[in-house]
Design a protein that fits this description.
Structural class: mainly beta
Helix content: under 10%
Shape: globular
Number of strands: 11
Largest sheet: 7 strands, mixed
Number of helices: 0
Oligomer: single chain
Length: 116
């Protein structure tokens, strides 16, 4: 069982920045693929960014050049640095953990609202 706790969401003006964090339980964090999805009202959950155990990253086209995913294995935590935020980035952001050969685990979500 993996428990995930997100933090860092909030209200920000267009062009601003936020940094999301996701802390994971368990001793095998370093071998998990980790990532972030977001879900806007009335829309499907979409992948935002992913980072493998080896540090390889991948991003949705809509956030490339603006968002950066990173991980700190010593702290069992991943981060999502979000810059140049746009109103279209408004959504609930969910952290997930994918252990090898097991099902994915999800956090409870954190709201990000980009509005003036």
């Amino acid at each position: 069982q993996v428990q995930l706790v997100e933090s860092g969401g909030g209200l920000v003006q267009p062009g601003g920045s936020l940094r999301l964090s996701c802390a994971a339980s368990g001793s095998d964090f370093s071998i998990y693929t980790m990532g972030w999805y977001h879900q806007a009202p009335g829309k499907q959950r979409e992948l935002v960014a992913v980072i493998t155990s080896g540090g390889t990253t991948n991003y949705a086209d809509s956030v490339k050049g603006r968002f950066t995913i990173s991980r700190d294995n010593a702290k069992n935590t991943i981060f999502l640095q979000m810059n140049s935020l746009k109103p279209d980035d408004t959504a609930v952001y969910y952290c997930y953990a994918q252990p090898p050969l097991l099902r994915a685990y999800w956090g409870q979500g954190t709201q990000v609202t980009v509005s003036s």
